[in-house]
Amino acid sequence: MDPERIEIVYFVRYFDPVRKRKAVTRYKLTEADARARYGEIELVEASREERRVGGDPRRNSAAHLHTGSPDKR
């Protein structure tokens, strides 16, 4: 199981060589992923989001609240 970590993701403004103008990504990416994909980028700071990834997948589960079916004695 991976340790839990926080990833910071953004919308990214980049130069689109096909349209010959700047464009904004449709999905949020980490800064490292965006630089690897688009090269020179500009982060849209207003779109900053912190996401928890890794760790125990059951941490957000409400399954522990379920006690099962009623006792049939």
From TrEMBL:
Region span, Disordered: 47-73
Positions with biased composition (Basic and acidic residues): 47-59
Protein name: Uncharacterized protein
Source organism: Noviherbaspirillum denitrificans
Organism taxonomic ancestry: Bacteria, Pseudomonadati, Pseudomonadota, Betaproteobacteria, Burkholderiales
